[in-house]
Amino acid sequence: MVRFTLLVAAACAGVLPSGVGAQGQEAALLDAERAVSKQSSDSGVAPALLRAMEPAGVLLWPGAPAVVGSHNVRRLLESLPGGDSLRVFWQPIGVALARDSTLGVTWGVAVESARRIPSPPEIGQYIAAWRRRDGRWAVAALLFIGLKPPVTAVPKGIPLTLVPATPRGAAGPFVAADLAFARLAADSGAATAFERWAAGDAMVFGRGGLLVQGPQAIGRAVAGDAVWRWHPVAAGTSPSGDLGWTVGEAVIAPREAKPSYSKYLTVWVRRDGGPVRFLTDGGNSRPAGGAP
Fold this sequence. Notes:
Nuclear Transport Factor 2, Chain: A; 2 domains; seven-stranded mixed sheet; alpha+beta
């Protein structure tokens, strides 16, 4: 069963509760994240992420497409204004661990600054999926929300859209859940879909970065007349099958405004053999095109 810990007080105080620090792989995951965040803050986000991500890791930076693989991640990060002076510090407010401790997810607050560009720091959020192999935690997928500068020109050769995922393989149940979630949103509206597919303890970042908790509150947060369409393009899971993630591409089309193009990272749980539901979800902008 997925174990989920809320660390809101710890994040504000800069320390972890003593009970969390004693719990094996959860503590190791938080230590790994703390080390990557410190390197990113001290030496730059690009070297920190390139060292921490899996070779096939997925980065979701504001304004860019979903970028897969260390080569493309490097090219994207090097293209950002500010280059090697860009620093990002982040700290978790929540963590979940699969039953077999091979997959973990964290989410919380991120702060961005650029040492060579005088400007106030940008405060945003993040969601990260981590995979443990050979005793080491590495980033499988990482989403930043609200950070600047957004990408304005995607380096040549990086695809603007990815091939839609199909519900096959170990992560198939989570891809299938994402597709069903999307169908319900298209048919019945985002509010109905988000409320129905949210886990009882689900939480998302709302306006201003405030946490929105629980299915009904999440449904109200996305209510409106816009038509939401999306599909997953990448996914991962733990062998135990109780924790997984999907990355996808979305289009949100208000009735009297231009559509917005976005991408997302959704974290999924399946508890005690019950239905798959999402634990947290977030997104940011991407280049126009490739409507789901």
